[in-house]
Amino acid sequence: MSLSNRTIRWMQKHCDVSLAGKTVLITGGNSGVGFKTAETMLHLGAAVILACRDPARAAQAAARLTQDFPGGSVRTVPLDLADFASIDAFAANLPDVDVLINNAGVFHRPGQKTRDGFPLVMGTNYLGVYRLCEAVLPRLLACGHDVTLINTVSLVYKVARVDYARFYRDDGSYARSKLCLARYTAALVQRCAGTNVHVYMTHPGITITGIASHLFGRIYKIACWMPFNSTEKSSLSAAWLLAHPLPEGSIVGPNKLFGGWGYPRRNRVLRRARQGTAELVSFTEAEIRRAAAPASAVQKGRSA
Fold first, then answer.
1. How far is CA 234 from the centre of its chain?
2. In total, how many domains does the chain have?
């Protein structure tokens, strides 16, 4: 078992919940915080589904998890959040799940695009997750049991701004994508109020991952010498959330240094994450419709 003894002791004390008989689906679960989240879910007794873009890496991750948790159930399904067709195919064959953790995300160099033509960061981290949630929500609402939906945001949503005239600019795109996801989550909370679908957010703090090295630059190098979070410690947010009754729409993340590191607790959701939700949803729907329109119709509309 690859979870550290310290983590196991902490979970025994602070995550007193059994997920036996439950199924947890994790997007991007083949590496980083997603992989460690899969380990914590297996430790709590859940069956785990890894929804990943790369089938080979997903199979390798599943093999490692099966070796470390020989009594556990691990399987994989294909899902590329940078491809609406992949998202739709995934949603059409969605397995019965009790927990859906939207963990997958990217940080990129300028110029990369999704298959549908959107800049990669916004197209994956926000538009892809939006498309996924909208596609699976009817099935989750009709499944006949409670479902917990967790969207993974980031600390940097606190410094982001949404300017629709410059929505896809590369500068600040990662933070903007996470603020948009937080606002969309707030909209989902309102839509799902009183239903069997319960919506929350987590964030990993400043975690020693590849995204952190790009996102925080020199701060990341300093972090190597400071007690910022390992992927294992950051992965505990989902487990802690599932073990504690929280108001819907809550965000869970590290409890030290403004949420940068430490063990999880409920954090404060900033007002900016609850503002402008209707405008954002309207803009997003228009952008998705535009992407789906035939190229000739789009060109005609631009020429009008």
1. 13
2. 1
